[in-house]
């Protein structure tokens, strides 16, 4: 299979990776978040048009395997396991999340967030995640924090999310890895 950075349908996200990496590093620094010891299990894209999502899907199918296709919050989301990783800082992401456009308009089409796994009780996720961030960073202008509980149609695990963004990129925290969530969908 092809390396994702050589696939024609993915040329724009290949070109976007340096911007994303720089913005993510800047956000982590502003938040006082020490990323080195953290396990981030996947990276996610955002787009405005279905045609872009379809093009990216076609490209990802050339360099990876579809792990999951699910409806979450009313829109399709695909997860792909790549043969060659997307490298951001020290992380080597082999799982890419590709959501179709929803109601929210993002300021940029391309890489949008990473998801960090903080194993532990789902009920304590927010406190554990916020404990990794500096109070000064959370008070900075333009930083927002949101909690949610996205749920796929067949998910069995509670999957709260704490998302921190500066409007350019987002860092999300979950209690489970994406592969644990996908496995929970398969259980009967």
Give the SSE layout.
Elements: H1 11-31, E1 39-46, H2 50-63, E2 64-72, E3 75-88, E4 91-99, E5 110-117, H3 125-130, H4 135-139, E6 144-148, E7 161-165, E8 170-174, H5 178-186
Parallel strand pairs: 1-4, 5-8
Antiparallel strand pairs: 1-5, 2-3, 3-4, 6-7, 7-8
Can you put this structure into words, describing what you see?
The protein is an alpha+beta fold and 188 residues long. The chain has a single domain (4-182), classed as 2,3-Dihydroxybiphenyl 1,2-Dioxygenase, domain 1 (Roll), CATH 3.10.180. The chain has helices at residues 11-31, 50-63, 125-130, 135-139, 178-186; strands at 39-46, 64-72, 75-88, 91-99, 110-117, 144-148, 161-165, 170-174. It has an eight-stranded mixed beta sheet with strand order 2-3-4-1-5-8-7-6. The chain is globular, with a radius of gyration of 16 Å.
Question: What is the count of β-strands?
Answer: 8
* Content of β-strand: 25-35%
User: Which fold name corresponds to the CATH topology?
Assistant: 2,3-Dihydroxybiphenyl 1,2-Dioxygenase, domain 1
* Global morphology: globular
Arrangement of strands in the largest sheet: 2-3-4-1-5-8-7-6
């Amino acid at each position: 299979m092809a390396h994702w950075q050589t696939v024609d349908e993915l040329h724009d996200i290949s070109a976007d990776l340096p911007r994303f990496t720089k913005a993510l590093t800047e956000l982590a620094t502003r938040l006082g978040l020490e990323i080195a010891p953290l396990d981030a299990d996947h990276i996610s894209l955002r787009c405005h048009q279905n045609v872009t999502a379809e093009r990216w899907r076609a490209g990802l199918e050339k360099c990876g395997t579809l792990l999951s296709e699910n409806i979450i919050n009313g829109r399709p989301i695909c997860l792909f396991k790549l043969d060659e990783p997307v490298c951001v800082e020290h992380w080597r992401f082999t799982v890419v999340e590709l959501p179709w456009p929803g109601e929210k308009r993002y300021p940029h089409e391309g890489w949008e967030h990473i998801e960090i796994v903080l194993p532990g009780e789902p009920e304590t996720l927010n406190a554990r995640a916020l404990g990794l961030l500096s109070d000064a960073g959370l008070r900075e202008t333009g930083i927002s924090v949101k909690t949610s509980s996205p749920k796929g149609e067949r998910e069995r695990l509670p999957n709260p999310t704490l998302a921190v963004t500066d409007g350019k990129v987002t860092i999300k925290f979950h209690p489970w890895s994406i592969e644990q969530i996908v496995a929970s969908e398969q259980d009967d």
